[in-house]
Write a structure and sequence with these properties.
- By secondary structure, this protein is an alpha/beta fold.
- Helix content is about 45%, strand content about 15%.
- The protein has 4 domains: about 120 residues, Rossmann fold (3-Layer(aba) Sandwich); about 160 residues, P-loop containing nucleotide triphosphate hydrolases (Rossmann fold, 3-Layer(aba) Sandwich), CATH 3.40.50.300; about 70 residues, Helicase, Ruva Protein, domain 3; about 50 residues, Arc Repressor Mutant, subunit A (Orthogonal Bundle), CATH 1.10.10.
- The chain is built from 19 helices and 14 strands.
- It is flat.
């Protein structure tokens, strides 16, 4: 394999020198003489390594590093610096640079720095391939989206994955808390070990301890003769994910605090201490801090769980990801159901974007599955989405009553027009795209009427 490098340096002599030294060993070298050009190339192409000068005239290397890392956090970068700028090079490493090399450097020093960085990259890619195989083996769904909100989440996941700190994930139901927890596990050094998930809200309060900690034979009436290994023990060396953690009973909270503090526990009915090495990720679809203030959750356990925190955005807060997610789910159900749906009409895209998504990504997933199963169209249209009530069917019989006093209204048609638009906007919560669709007029026509009938107060919708 031929390694591909980008040299970003405004000193043409230095760039030529680096090219001469490295091309002898088979590296493919490209160069940029300004920070802007370097950023453009780095974001348009895939380079194994950037050699980035700290001093670039109008834009310094730290700014280039920030911009590149913002878009591609995994990009490997070696800073090139003069003696007087070593402190800045160290600062660059704190911001994500892999290493730095100091001018003037010999050919051997440059080659050694590059070889070391690329060996690290090769090892990272090998580990990533193992992770990907493990994820495919366990049928892990990808986290889809390019919105700023989801990029922020993924950045936190990558940061937290490198340590064993406990993570608390909060977000509305259906936002993908378990998926994020699983991704955190696969990015961590524990990726080849078990990922065990327990929904605390799905287990009866009087059974949660025996499910979590396990029990010895004869521990209680109805216990299995051979005893039972609990979720904590099954997670040893791996990751334990506790969903709806606020539903833990008070007794279970006390015992689980010991697991977090000491790494050991007793099975129900047992006298032998069991030691475990596990990473804990907890999740809640409501504020755990509020549960603490209301006395429903232990404050000391909350602090132990909330070492690192991830807040998942609702789907309505990341509308830019809706159509991308919808297409991902269509591809998924094409494979699962043997369909050949090719996408969505523009009107269907508009309807997906206009919908509020109270059930978040889970609702979108389920709706696309239903539409994929029932639709006879090659391309999903608005009429298909009516099956899932994303948009009203044309024959739904929606009735709107208007109140017009002909004796007091000089222009009855304009008054009727005003009242109709007002009521439709109330129905659509001010969404003009859906309102225009319900009225059967172009969105531009609706905007014309809104501008003309300025008494329609959208702020009250």
């Amino acid at each position: 394999m031929q390694w591909r490098l980008l040299v970003i340096d405004d000193d043409a002599a230095i760039a030529r020198s680096i090219r001469r030294i490295l091309e002898v060993d088979g590296y493919k070298i490209e160069s940029a003489d300004t920070g802007d050009r370097g950023i453009q190339l780095a974001l348009q192409n895939r380079y194994d390594l950037l050699l980035l000068d700290l001093r670039l005239g109008a834009m310094d290397g730290l700014e280039v590093l920030r911009r590149v890392k913002e878009e591609n956090p995994e990009q490997l970068v070696i800073m090139v610096t003069g003696f007087a700028n070593v402190a800045s090079a160290v600062e660059a490493m704190k911001r994500g640079a892999y290493d730095y090399i100091q001018k003037p450097f010999s050919a051997d020093e440059l080659k050694l720095a590059v070889e070391k960085a690329l060996q690290t990259l090769a090892l990272q890619r090998e580990i990533e391939e193992l992770r990907q195989r493990q994820m495919e083996k366990n049928k892990f769904d990808k986290i889809i989206g390019n919105s700023r909100e989801i990029k922020k989440v993924l950045s936190l996941v990558r940061t937290f994955a490198q340590t064993d700190i406990t993570v608390l994930i909060e977000g509305e139901s259906g936002t993908g808390k378990e998926l994020v927890a699983e991704y955190l596990h696969y990015l961590s050094p524990r990726y080849a070990k078990p990922f065990i998930a327990l929904n605390c809200g799905a287990v009866a309060k009087n059974l949660i301890e025996s499910e979590l900690f396990g029990y010895e034979k004869g521990a209680f009436t109805g216990a299995d003769r051979g005893g039972h290994i609990g979720f904590i023990e099954r997670s040893d060396a791996g990751t334990l994910f506790l969903d709806e953690v606020a539903e833990l009973s008070e007794e279970a909270q006390v015992k689980f605090l010991r697991v977090l503090e000491r790494g050991d526990f007793y099975r129900v009915g047992g006298t032998k201490i069991i030691h475990v090495d596990l990473r804990v990720i907890a999740a809640s679809n409501s504020s755990l801090e509020v549960a603490v203030e209301e006395g429903r959750f232990r404050r000391d356990l909350y602090y132990r769980l909330n070492v690192a925190h991830i807040e998942l955005p609702a789907l309505r807060e990341r509308k830019g990801d809706v159509t991308q997610l919808a297409r991902f789910f269509v591809d998924k159900f094409n494979r699962k159901l043997g369909r050949r749906i090719q996408g969505f009409t523009p009107a269907a895209d508009d309807a997906l974007m206009a919908y509020h998504w109270p059930g978040n990504v889970r609702e979108l997933h389920n709706i696309i599955e239903r539409v994929s199963l029932l639709s006879n169209n090659v391309v999903i249209d608005v009429s298909d989405l009516a099956i899932a009530k994303i948009v009203p069917k044309k024959d739904d019989g929606m009735t709107i009553n208007l109140n017009i006093d002909l004796n007091k209204t000089p222009n009855a048609i304009r008054e009727a027009n005003y009242q109709l638009i007002q009521k439709i906007l109330e129905i659509t919560s001010g969404n003009k795209t859906r309102a225009a669709r319900l009225l059967g007029i172009p969105r531009g026509t609706l905007r014309y009427h809104l501008a003309r009938d300025s008494q329609i107060d959208l702020t009250k919708l």
